[in-house]
Structure formats: structure tokens, C-alpha cells
Amino acid sequence: MKKVLLLLAMMATITTGYAQKKLVLYYSETGTTKTVAQELQKQLGADIESIEAVVPYSGNFQETIQRGQREMQNNETPAIKPLKSNLKDYDVIFIGYPIWFGTYALPIATLVKQNDFAGKTIIPFCTFGSGGLNTSTDDLKKALPKANIKTGYGVRTLRVTAAPKELDRFLKENGYKAGTVEKLPDYSAQKAVTDEEKAIFDAACSSYQFPLGTPVTVGKRTTSDGTDYQFTVKGRGMNGSEALSTIYVTVGKEKGAKPEFTQVVR
After folding, report:
1. d(C-alpha 231, C-alpha 248), whole Å
2. Which of 32, 48, 108, 135 is deepest in the core (most CB within 10 A)?
């Protein structure tokens, strides 16, 4: 009897999770984050709204960097247009953004200044050149202490075509969408990088515009999709001092599949 009651309670909890009202709220400058947001909205059947700066950013990389640096130096955030959505109507809010300067884009900084999201479940999602999901999530937790910030999803801009499949797994794993997925195995213990593994790292990362460092150890796991690598990499931090980072690489099981750099965690 106890087992039956426990099962019913678990089913009720899961059903409640699916039934919660969800909003996908995002800022996108070049359209990449918008692509992920729209995929999220489609898979969830959620409401969706974009955040718009009153004075739009140009979409030009260098101009955005210059304006962003100027705003940060002056301790300013850009004005954003009023939201059409009433945040009080939603239980779960997916907040999306590109990574700028290692964290969420500045229009999101304005959003979190204007709204404390008290009692809301917040799921970050982001697009990036190399990484930033972990740092931006930490910053959201600091900026929104009254909200429940959950594990988020991030994808490199160059891999945005992988988002639909990855989001399906992410949403099911975390109970935002009905269904089950294969449980991924743990990575093996870190060991010294072989010449073959170094070649895989180089094939995945050498074309990145900034130096990522030298892999020193690696852990691996095999999935139904291929092989994933977790490299510990020695490089330089933002201040120029020696630092370690973790860089993830995946190689599909298809014949001739090329290694792909998925993210760096610093």
C-alpha cells in the first residue's frame, strides 16, 4: 500500500511539473539565441517573448564590445522595452541570452534589476562562443536571491543545429517535458592525454579564435551517439596567470565524424 501511495505521489508531482505555466523569455542580438528560444517554445508549448533594448545593439561584434565595455565602465545597463507578459502568471520562466564578457548579455542585467522573480523557478539558457553557462548561472543566483535558479542549458553558436536534440534530452531529464531518455554514463577517471587524444582535442579546438591551452589529462564516456571527452586544460586566465579549465569535446559515431568542441568551463 505504501508503495502504491508513493507511486501516486510521484506521478502527481510529475504531472504538476508538466502542468506548470511556462514562459520562454529571451534576449537575442544576432538571432542565434532566438533560434534556441523558439525551439524551446515549440518543445514545451510555452508562451514566448523577446526582450528588446530601447536603443538596439548593432549586431556588429566590435561595436557591441565597445558599447558593452563603455556601459560596464559607467556602471550602466541599457533601457529595455516594457514586457508584454505578466510574470506573475508564470510558475517556470526560461531566461535566455548570449554570453557577453563571460556572463549574461547586458539587457538581461536590466531585466533582473527590474524584476526580482521571487518564488519563480528560473531555467537559464544561453548561446556562446566558448562557454559561460556556469558563470552566468552563478551571477543569476547572486542577482535573484528570491528565485529558484535551476540547472540550465547552453550551446555554442557554431553548434546551434544540435540544440533540438540536446534540448529534448535536457527537458526530459529535468522533468519539464514528458518522456524518458537514456541515462548518460559518468566520465572515466582523468588520465594523461595520449597522442591520439591530443589530436582529437586539436581537431576540435585549433580553429577557435583564441588560444584554449594545452590538454594535460582526459576522461571519456561512450554513449549511443558517440564518444565524449572531458579534457583538463592548462592555459592562461583573464589576468594572464596560469589557470586550469575543463573543455568538452564530442565525436559522433558516424564514420568520418569530426570532433566538436562543445564548451569550456573555467
Report:
1. 6
2. 108
> pLDDT digit string (tens) for 99-157?
999 999 999 999 999 999 999 999 999 999 999 999 999 999 999 999 999 999 999 99
Residue 237 and residue 243 in contact, taking contact as beta carbons nearer than 8 Å: yes
Judging by DSSP bridges, how do beta strands 226-236 and 242-252 pair with one another? antiparallel
Q: Which amino acid is at 32?
A: T
Q: How would DSSP label each residue in the chain?
A: -HHHHHHHHHHHHHHHHHHS-EEEEE--SSSHHHHHHHHHHHHHT-EEEE--BSS---S-HHHHHHHHHHHHHTT----BPPPSS-GGG-SEEEEEEEEETTEE-HHHHHHHHH---TT-EEEEEEEESS--HHHHHHHHHHH-TTSEE---EEEEGGGGGGHHHHHHHHHHHTTSSS---PPPPPPPPPEEPPHHHHHHHHHHHTTSSS---EEEEEEEEEETTEEEEEEEEEEE-TTSSEEEEEEEEEEESSTTPPPEEEEEE-
Residue whose C-alpha is closest to residue 124's, from 115, 135, 110: 135
pTM equals 0.91
* pLDDT tens-place string over residues 37-63: 999 999 999 999 999 999 999 878 899
Q: What is the b/e burial string over 116-153, where b = at least 16 CB atoms within 10 angstroms of the residue's CB?
A: ebeebbbbbbbbbbbbbbbbbbebbeebbeebebeebb
Tell me the angle at which helices 106-114 and 61-73 cross, rounded to the nearest 10 degrees. Answer: 40
